[in-house]
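Fig. S4 source data, part A: sequence.
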Amino acid sequence: TVANDQYLEIELHDGATYEDIIKKERDDRKKMPWARSEFDTAYIRFSLGNFSNEDLYKTRRRDFMMLNTQQLKEKADTLSAQVIERQANFEKNLNGKYKFNYIEISSADNQGALRDDLMQNLVSGMRVRASQNAIRLARSNLDYLRQMEREMEWRKEMHLRHWIEYYKKYALGVSVLIMFFIGAPLGSIIRKGGIGLPLVISTISFLVFHILNTTFEKMGREMLIDVAAAVWVPSIILAPIALWLTYSASTDTALLSGEWYSKLSTRFARKSRS
């Protein structure tokens, strides 16, 4: 890069450049004249002015985690507008880069305008060059399409990630309260101190929440479910468990004890007999 990283400079050796010559007369334009220039060394510069810190190649993937809710909404709206703009300009840019010739074949007089083998119209020396140019253009277009596809996927993913982070700003506080109402009643319910069973159940509860949160967040990023649901579903699943444990602790219910297991097995045995 040169000029304070404002341009990308490529050095080429032993090649040729081709340029279309635009004529004023209509008959001359039909001939599609062009000029060929050979070079020993050439320099091509591409402007990097459109690539800011917000763009694809300089944006760190977790910068959005440092934004507040208002900034996340603005950034998400900007990304959505960029996706729409890029998709709208894609066809325009492709059509402006190449020329397309169309032949009217609706009438019987023009049926002969199309030929099975257009290469026969070229001299033998130009056929190989025409084939090589066609292959080169096809590969160039394919690379361009793949690049655009990756860019669109990245922009859509970042748009969803911003909305996920936006909802997580609120859902995180709710999940902390839910985990508190799960862990706090365990001491009175289990009625055992130390780092034994209470610690095991608390750890399992956290792992369940983490697995649910990771799974649904991934589904939201892949657009399998709505991003708001992806963030709130883990809390909704664990909220009834937290309420049940809190109610059991307030009513002094001895859950997960020998007596509780005995009563549960007795009830199950009676139902199975009946």
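Fig. S4 source data, part B ends here. Residues 165-259 form one domain.
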